[in-house]
Amino acid sequence: VCYLKCMSEYSSNGEDFRMLICWLLASLLTTCLTDPLPNIILMNMDDMGWGDIGVNGNWAKETPNIDKMAAEGMLFQDFYSGNPLCSPSRAALLTGRLPIRNGFYTDNHHARNAYTPQKMIGGISHREILLPKLLKTKGYRSKIVGKWHLGHREQFLPLNRGFDEFFGSGNCHLGPYNDKNTPNIPVYKDDKMVGRYYTNFTIDRKTGYSNMSQIFLEEGLSFIEKENKAGNPFFLYWTPDANHGPNYASEMFLGKSIRGIFGDSVMEMDHCVGVILQRLKDLGIDKNTFVFFTSDNGAATYRGSEGGDNGPFLCGKCTTFEGGMRVPGIAWWPGKIPAGSITHQLATNMDLFSTSLAIAGLDVPQDRAIDGMDLTKPLIQQVLTDRPVFFYRGNEMMAVRLGQYKAHYWLWVSSRGFQRTGHYLFCKGQYVANVTTHAQMDHSDQPVLFNIERDPGEKYPLKPHSAEYKAAMPDISRVVATHKATMVPGIPDLNMCDNAVQNWAPPGCEEMGYCLPIPKSDPVECFWGFY
Q1: How many other CB atoms sit within 10 Å of the CB of residue 81?
Q2: Are the C-beta atoms of residues 127 and 156 closer than 8 Å to each other?
Q3: Is the Cβ–Cβ distance between 244 and 173 less than 8 Å?
Q4: Which of 154, 258, 331, 346 has the most CB atoms in a 10 Å sphere around its CB?
Q5: Helix (H) or strand (E) holding 257
Q6: How many angstroms separate the Cα of 18 from the Cα of each of 2, 3, 7, 24?
Q7: Cβ atoms of residues 72 and 332 within 8 Å
Q8: DSSP-based three-state secondary structure for 450
Q9: Annotation says 109 is catalytic
């Protein structure tokens, strides 16, 4: 059509006509050779440890689909979360920035993690630019399915922070509550609640039964199919929370694992991963979809057999030891990422921000510090990049990893008072003298150094007078000095709590007739005693 129209209009001028034909052919060739924008799926598990999947050596071998994903893609052996606790880790992923920069931390206490319980006043700041908002500039449609955890008040919910669709909850599925002292957690469909956990969406604390993972699976699949049919590039942030206590599983998985209810929930997550990847293949879009599987932090070792497995690593969730922040990492993109590849590229969940933007043909924001690195070279070309990984607990840089070495500038597990209760044993069954301490120990003048490749369990600190220590520390010291000199902390958003901001009357409660009386406001500083 263009050719005939141009011929009729420009045939009187041969020179102009030839130039136009060249331009048209070049444009058509470019259009034909340009691939559609890749789809992006980020799967973020909740409290699943590095050692909970078979490909990382789990003894139960109950994750065949996740293991197959690794066999078809790339396994990251040195992948870290942005924080050892759920909310700040998720904020790190979606902003590409350390929580100390994006404001998802507290300075009420020194070196304490913070998150977003129902009483939390704050949420992810509107100063921050989230991944879905940036992807939208290239025409991406986005949906989050599962646990949000970046603020449950209306102004912080996903549709007000860049997502097009939402099915899940603003908080974790803790409960049940009596709706008097504490309301049950609402479940949202887009910008309105459609019920509450325990009241309308069953989670049986006695048996562990719940069908929520299957609901989350169907929500993800329907979004994929809808956007593919519409011809839209899509971003699915799939973040189910069955692995977080209290664990749950649907009828087809309940009681099936030799690891108990936690294992049941892992088996169901594995099933869901397999169904999603197979659906991409069935739709013929697997080779145009980048998928990454990870977890928000290490396993909650204080929950014992219901808390997951961190493999050979020290301690777990809430700590900046390897068990708290080294998590599963699997990238899958058939035809782009070499199948069956393993990488020791140091990487973090913040890199998923920068990598997703690069895949979409976008640059990271230039008006702020971005901690995430574009992983496309390690993924596609298997070219590794030297870079540090910083480990923060609240407002303190606790440790840094550079190459094969990890230097602890502060050491702390949790206070002895909380350890005595037996509820917060972050290093349950593990003890390393002068390392797993119950007091905050400042080693900034002489960091405690481990060769993490030789000693992944952080059991044998290098002697400060050893040649290896003296050879490794100068580079680490320079990296840390630069990091601290250029660090501009964000305004802490997780300092204040108020009973009045709990989920008493969330958006949509009027239509359901399920609004609860809002108590008098009484804001106080949040207490983060053991985190």
Answers
A1: 28
A2: no
A3: yes
A4: 331
A5: none
A6: 14, 11, 10, 10
A7: yes
A8: strand
A9: no
Residue type, 151: G
509 is catalytic: no
- SS3 labels along 286-329: HHHEEEEEEECCCCCHHHHHHCCCCCCCCCCCCCCCHHHHECCE
Q: Which of 149, 244, 271, 408 is catalytic?
A: 149
Whole-number Å distance between alpha carbons of 185 and 182: 9
Identity of the residue numbered 8: S
Q: pTM of the predicted model, to two decimals?
A: 0.93
**Cα→Cα distances 92→80, 111, 130, Å:** 11, 17, 10
Residue 223's φ and ψ, nearest 5 degrees, are -65, -45
Encoding tokens for residue 32?
């034909």
Q: If you count them, how many residues does the chain have?
A: 531
Among 2, 32, 86, 344, the one annotated catalytic: 86
Strand partners, 142: 235
Calculate ∠ Cα 342-346-349, nearest 5°. Answer: 100
Residue for token pair 């994903």: 69
Q: Tokens 């904020």 belong to which residue?
A: 91
Looking at residue 529, what is its pLDDT?
77
CB atoms within 10 A of CB 132: 24
User: Which secondary structure element, helix H or strand E, spans residue 1, and what is its range?
Assistant: none
CA-wise closest residue to 195 among 184, 204, 205, 206: 184
Rounded to 5 degrees, what are φ and ψ at 339?
-65, 140
Output helix, strand, coil percentages for the chain, rounded to the nearest 5. 35, 15, 50
What's the average pLDDT block by block, 10 residues per block, for the chain (531 residues)? 38 49 47 75 98 97 97 98 98 98 97 96 98 98 98 98 98 96 98 98 98 98 98 98 98 97 98 98 98 98 91 96 98 98 98 98 98 97 96 98 98 70 72 93 98 98 98 98 97 98 98 96 91 79
